Amino acid sequence: MHLSSCNLLGRYNSDPEFALRAKMITSLACVPEADVVTAIAELENYLPNEFEPILERFIDNYIGRLRNNGTRVPPTFPSAIWSVYFRTLNGRDRTNNFAETCHRKLFLVLGLLNTHPTL
Length: 119
What we know:
Elements: H1 9-14, H2 16-26, H3 36-46, H4 52-63, H5 79-82, H6 85-89, H7 97-110
């Protein structure tokens, strides 16, 4: 979610009610995959209009834009990657923190932590 690109980060940091509503969008990762589209429709009706660009970005990247023929464009990130619903039920990892830790250790060993290597 890119609140800063919508000039909403300051409000997120200072308004607890606004922050709670913003977190409702990220909580879609905890909704069963079959119910995500319905949950987004509910959020669109509930959230203030200022969240519209963020919801649109979520739809484009994680659900897929609805075409005129009723099908969806394949999302950039399929729900199998970001949904944690079944992982939570099965007691599995819900984040990729272990991968981030591994990458950080590798970059430390290679001395690349504060650089952006190119190929």
